[in-house]
Amino acid sequence: MPKKNNQGSGNFEMIAKTYHGLEDVLAKELLQLGAQDIKTLRRAVKFKGDLGFMYKANLSLRTAVRIIKPIKSFKVRNEDQLYEELRNIDWEQYMTIDDKFAVDSFVNSPYFNHSLYVALKTKDAIVDQFRDKCGMRPDVDLDQPNLRINIHITDETCTLSIDSSGKSLHKRGYRLETNEAPISEALAAGLILLSGWDKKSHFVDGMCGSGTFLVEAAMIGANIPANINRAHFAFQDWPDFDQELWDLIRSSQLKRATDCYGKIIGYDLNPETVASANVNIKNSGLEDYIEIHCANFFETTKPEGPTHLVFNPPYGVRIQGDIPEMYKQIGDTLKKNYSGSEAWFLTSHMEGLKHVGLRASRKIEIYQAKLECRFVKYEMYQGTKKMKKNPS
Predict the structure, then answer these.
(1) 155 and 263 part of one domain
(2) Mean pLDDT along residues 359-365
């Protein structure tokens, strides 16, 4: 059994990956959680923390999809240099002969042409070291490795990292059923945070699908850690995993939970979709905070009190239909039935936005997978906009 490595003692650098457009939201989350030396990158945020903070970040961050820990950076111009640098790392600090591993690689360099070749060379260096030391080699498992290694080469700089998350952090563990075009849990949480919901107003999703916005809103409103339903993180397989510290972090984060102030309400026209959403909501353990109705959003009205809407209407990419007409109905419903509320929705259908019939007060560029989208905000003033600004 290898010795526990000392990499986790004291603060060390980590990188949390996220979606384009959510970098500042993730940086704010990290600041509130207690991270140090925070710096935003492209689709990522760099920060520092100790071993306990790494556990806490994986458990609690809502907009991160992966948290990696860089362990070495070096200059490299050819495959022999790469192999030797990797071969000289003491891999027994990070895994045992019985562990399975996988390598993810990204290459943007004039010296290397194929990321797959870099991954294979990394695998060879690790396997050869163990074979020389132990006479045996660890196995590769691309689906469920004990150690996932990330190698990133830009120009002549190679950064080697280990993945503390494992499966993407957007896979919270509560969503058992999905509709035709589900939104990522981490992206949904990011959009709610980006919308500035105060956690006191009623939260409404007029086209709730599998209920992702509703569950994420309930967890935000009740201050419940994002990944509390997740069964496993990659760091639990590391040789230096501290079970006692993990139990302490998990318990302390759960103690910060509170009750939701406003109602969290979802509507969907399809009975089967509502049934699927109810399964996910029950699986999340948040059914006491959420009410969902099989109803046409265009026939609904605003609940009593301040109301905040966030939803993800069809774009026409995987769901067909008359999108411009649907968006016109969304605008009409907001104007007639949701006066005094604030509404946000995500779309990639730029032409459809022209038919909403309302002036967007904000448009934020967001990518869902490789799909360019806009997250748009509409403010439904009571009376005229002039009256809103000058209530006297």
Answers:
(1) no
(2) 94
For residue 151, being part of any structural domain is answered with: yes
Q: Give the CATH number for residue 21.
A: 3.30.2130.30
Q: Specify whether 154 is located in the same domain as 280.
A: no
What residues pair up with 344 in beta bridges, in sequence order?
310, 377
| Structural domain count, the chain | 2
Q: Is residue 244 domain-resident?
A: no
Return the structure tokens found at 60: 């609690």
* SS3 assignment, position 12: strand
Task: Please choose, from the candidates 333, 336, 334, 314, the residue with its C-alpha nearest in 3D space to the C-alpha of residue 324.
Answer: 314
pLDDT at position 9? 60
Round to whole Å and give the CA distance between 188 and 310. 9
Together in a domain, 127 and 189? no
DSSP 3-state assignment of 245? helix
How many whole angstroms separate alpha carbon 144 and alpha carbon 94?
16
Report the alpha-carbon distance of residue 103 to residue 93 in Å, rounded. Answer: 17
pLDDT single digits (tens) 80-125: 999 999 999 999 999 999 999 999 999 999 999 899 999 999 999 9
Residue 174 falls inside a structural domain: no
Amino acid 238: pLDDT: 93
Domain extent for 29: 12-163
Comparing CA positions, the residue from 199, 202, 191 lying closest to residue 340 is: 202
- Cα–Cα distance measured from residue 190 to residue 183, given in angstroms and rounded to the nearest whole number: 11
- For residues 159 and 203, membership in a common domain is answered with no
Residue 250 lies in a domain: no
Co-location of 366 and 217 in the same domain? yes
Nearest to residue 51, comparing CAs of 67, 39, 64, 63? 67
Question: CA 237 to CA 215: how far, in whole Å?
Answer: 29
Query: What are the two backbone dihedrals, phi and then psi, of residue 24, each rounded to the nearest 5 degrees?
Result: -70, -35
Sign of CA dihedral 36, 37, 40, 41: negative
pLDDT at 386 over 90: no
The single-letter code of the amino acid at 32 is Q
- pTM: predicted TM-score of the whole model, two decimal places: 0.90
